[in-house]
Amino acid sequence: MARRFDPERRERIIAACLDVIAEEGVAGTSHRKVAAAAGVPLGSMTYHFDGMDELLREAFTRFAHDVADRFEVLMQQAPDLDAARKAAVELITSATLQDQRELVLTQELYTLAARQPAFRTITNAWMARSRAALERHFDPLTARLLDALNEGMTLHRALDTEPHDVATVIEAVARITRTTDD
């Protein structure tokens, strides 16, 4: 029997892993569930990945890179301080994490990184990219504060039962980014 050539299989497995994590959580994710979601034989899992930790690292690294890429693009497009403030609001309210799936994936990654220090390299790299993007327009301390606001609001968006008021975010960004010229 000839082997089927499937150059996209590894990528499909990684994407399916994120889907399974979003539905089942990290604790409910298994090779069998990911293989089924990716539509690949179970043996493909061990062919492409040494184990579940490697698969989780690959999946969460991809997720973090994708979100950080969107963050960087939005901050790069801001031509001045006022536009950067508006971009920061957009990042916090909708652009960085676009839906409930991404909010859940973020919380799953944070929990995994809190429990297993090896996964902190992913979150640390993500935070460093976020701060670097913010530092295009803000000093390092302000960038760190905005990043913390983004992280905190992400947690609130994921867990709060009340709708979020964009005006509150606008006011928070204004306060954090206030300069002596304002």
From TrEMBL:
Residues 7-67 form the HTH tetR-type domain. PROSITE patterns: HTH_TETR_2. Keywords: DNA-binding, Transcription, Transcription regulation. GO terms for molecular function: DNA binding. Residues 30-49 bind DNA. It comes from the Bacteria. InterPro entries: Homeodomain-like_sf, HTH_TetR, Tet_transcr_reg_TetR-rel_C_sf. This is TetR family transcriptional regulator. It comes from Kineosporia babensis. The lineage of its organism: Bacteria, Bacillati, Actinomycetota, Actinomycetes, Kineosporiales.
